[in-house]
């Protein structure tokens, strides 16, 4: 830090905020710490009584906060993202399209554990809209060692394999088949109130329902319908009903008999414990097949809301992913649902 004349300050970097006080009008920083003084700024600085300024003195091996922020942004920014300009060591990232945000948690913790820099993100594996804020980064001091920023870059790359810490997977168009099961619906004893719920949730994405059939509790018919829908080009098949452990609940068996790879039958989420997820390989396509328990019909938010965005973004779900939902997997059934602005589905 050094003291210079204000009239000579063009291009210099301020080491502290400059406050402007006008009685009854304003009392605020007219320039913030880290601001690079322009020729036009000099009359303003003089008008607030600053004939001299403390400015940053460039040192070998040290980076200004904005220059260091660029490195941090580079480490974070994946495709389909927009960024703000560096200001006071801060850069924000926003979604350039609708999609699913992915966060490399291990890399995030690694960088945040180094000190003097930070990355704050929204929760990963949740849908975002174009324009939504995804993350904010900040360099804490005015200047930081270049060596420390390079160490952060290397540490993050070691965890991510050289990929960005954040990724935004765009949602893609999906053709969907719906198989409704249950004697009570098939024989007209009750109205099908499940399918409209599924269609409403699908409407939040670029989804096209290409087929819908209703069967009684005959697993062979359900198996055949799933395979037929896949043959017609379905990218996703949703089966409703028959997901419990009663003798006539045969949907899990029907899905298994298609030859699909079962990821999990059961998930540590309430509502949604009896959820089934499988993947069927159809040539060069991977079709997601889901068995939805009855709670999806009547509960505001369930396991289906946590998995569907990932399916719509072609983001494979593993058994480990589902197991990790246990922490945060309990919906509190609030009188007024604020999802996704709540803890449901948000583990560590």
Automatic annotation (TrEMBL):
<dbReference type="GO" id="GO:0046872">
    <property type="term" value="F:metal ion binding"/>
</dbReference>
<comment type="pathway">
    <text>Cofactor biosynthesis; molybdopterin biosynthesis.</text>
</comment>
<keyword id="KW-0479">Metal-binding</keyword>
<protein>
    <recommendedName>
        <fullName>Molybdopterin molybdenumtransferase</fullName>
        <ecNumber>2.10.1.1</ecNumber>
    </recommendedName>
</protein>
<keyword id="KW-0500">Molybdenum</keyword>
<comment type="function">
    <text>Catalyzes the insertion of molybdate into adenylated molybdopterin with the concomitant release of AMP.</text>
</comment>
<dbReference type="GO" id="GO:0061599">
    <property type="term" value="F:molybdopterin molybdotransferase activity"/>
</dbReference>
<comment type="similarity">
    <text>Belongs to the MoeA family.</text>
</comment>
<feature type="domain" description="MoaB/Mog">
    <location>
        <begin position="177"/>
        <end position="313"/>
    </location>
</feature>
<keyword id="KW-0460">Magnesium</keyword>
<dbReference type="GO" id="GO:0006777">
    <property type="term" value="P:Mo-molybdopterin cofactor biosynthetic process"/>
</dbReference>
<dbReference type="GO" id="GO:0005829">
    <property type="term" value="C:cytosol"/>
</dbReference>
<dbReference type="InterPro" id="IPR001453">
    <property type="entry name" value="MoaB/Mog_dom"/>
</dbReference>
<keyword id="KW-0501">Molybdenum cofactor biosynthesis</keyword>
<dbReference type="InterPro" id="IPR038987">
    <property type="entry name" value="MoeA-like"/>
</dbReference>
<keyword id="KW-0808">Transferase</keyword>
<dbReference type="InterPro" id="IPR036425">
    <property type="entry name" value="MoaB/Mog-like_dom_sf"/>
</dbReference>
<dbReference type="Pfam" id="PF00994">
    <property type="entry name" value="MoCF_biosynth"/>
</dbReference>
């Amino acid at each position: 830090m050094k003291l210079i004349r204000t009239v000579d300050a063009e291009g210099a970097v301020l080491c502290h905020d400059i406050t402007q006080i006008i009685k009854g009008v304003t009392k605020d920083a007219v320039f913030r710490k880290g601001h690079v003084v322009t020729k036009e700024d000099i009359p303003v600085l003089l008008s607030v009584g600053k004939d001299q300024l403390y400015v940053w003195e460039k040192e070998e091996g040290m980076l200004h906060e904005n220059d260091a922020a660029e490195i941090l942004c580079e480490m974070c920014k994946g495709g389909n993202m927009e960024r703000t300009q560096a200001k006071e060591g801060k850069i924000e990232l926003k979604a350039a399209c609708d999609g699913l945000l992915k966060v490399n948690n291990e890399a995030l913790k690694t960088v945040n554990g180094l000190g003097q820099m930070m990355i704050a993100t929204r929760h990963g594996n949740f849908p975002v809209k174009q324009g939504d804020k995804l993350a904010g980064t900040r360099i804490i001091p005015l200047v930081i060692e270049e060596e420390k920023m390079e160490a952060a870059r290397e540490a993050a790359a070691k965890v991510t394999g050289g990929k960005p810490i954040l990724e935004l997977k765009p949602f893609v168009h999906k053709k969907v088949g719906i198989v409704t099961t249950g004697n009570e619906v098939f024989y007209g004893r009750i109205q099908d109130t499940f399918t409209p719920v599924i269609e409403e949730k699908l409407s939040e994405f670029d989804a096209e329902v290409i087929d819908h059939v209703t069967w009684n509790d005959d697993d062979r018919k359900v198996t055949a319908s799933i395979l037929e829908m896949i043959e017609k080009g379905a990218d996703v098949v949703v089966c409703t009903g028959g997901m419990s452990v009663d003798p006539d609940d045969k949907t899990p068996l029907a899905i298994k008999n298609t030859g699909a790879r079962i990821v999990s039958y059961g998930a540590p989420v309430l509502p949604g414990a009896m959820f089934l997820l499988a993947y069927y390989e159809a040539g060069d396509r991977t079709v997601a097949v889901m068995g939805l328990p009855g709670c999806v019909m009547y509960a505001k938010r369930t396991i289906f809301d946590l998995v569907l965005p990932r399916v719509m973004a072609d983001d494979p779900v593993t058994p480990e992913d589902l197991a990790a939902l246990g922490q945060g997997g309990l919906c509190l059934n609030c009188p007024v649902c604020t999802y996704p602005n709540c803890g449901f589905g948000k583990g560590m």
